[in-house]
Design a protein that fits this description.
This protein is mostly helical. It has 2 domains: 67 residues, Orthogonal Bundle (Arc Repressor Mutant, subunit A), CATH 1.10.10.10; 44 residues. 59% of the residues lie in helices and 7% in strands. It has 5 helices and 2 strands. The chain has a two-stranded antiparallel sheet. Strand 1 and strand 2 form a beta hairpin. Helix 2 packs across helix 3. The relative contact order is 0.12.
Length: 123
């Protein structure tokens, strides 16, 4: 069972997790997703919650729904790349916001990030 934060709706957290799996290739373009019931069991949630999460992913263009096949990851690699770029930008903004009040200049933060990357923080 997955642990969820109480700060945001569970369906959004599930949507983000599956979306991240799509963006990192755990679910490759064109691959079939598990059924709503199987995913609901994996996440330990009601199928209606899972349905809402998948509808959210469909709204983002990351998932396609076909009557005879079920849900698949979009084959549009540009859509996946765009979603990935947006997610990275969002997380960078959140990271920068979390450092407000530490009195570092943008140049200082950039230097710290570069040094962290050199030391193996990012592959």
């Amino acid at each position: 069972m997955v642990q969820f934060s109480t700060a945001r709706p569970i369906f959004q957290q599930i949507s983000e997790r599956i979306g991240a799996d799509i963006m990192t290739g755990a679910y490759p373009p064109g691959s079939k997703l598990p059924s709503v019931r199987d995913l609901a069991a994996t996440f330990g949630v009601n199928p209606n919650t899972m349905q809402r999460a998948l509808a959210d992913l469909e709204g983002q263009g990351l998932v396609d729904t076909y009557r005879t096949v079920g849900r698949t990851v979009t084959e549009d690699k540009a859509t996946i790349a765009h979603a990935k770029q947006n997610l990275v930008e969002q997380r960078v903004r959140e990271f920068i916001e979390s450092l407000q009040g530490f009195d570092y200049s943008p140049e200082d933060l950039t230097d710290i990030i570069r040094q962290s990357i050199k030391e193996g923080g990012v592959k």
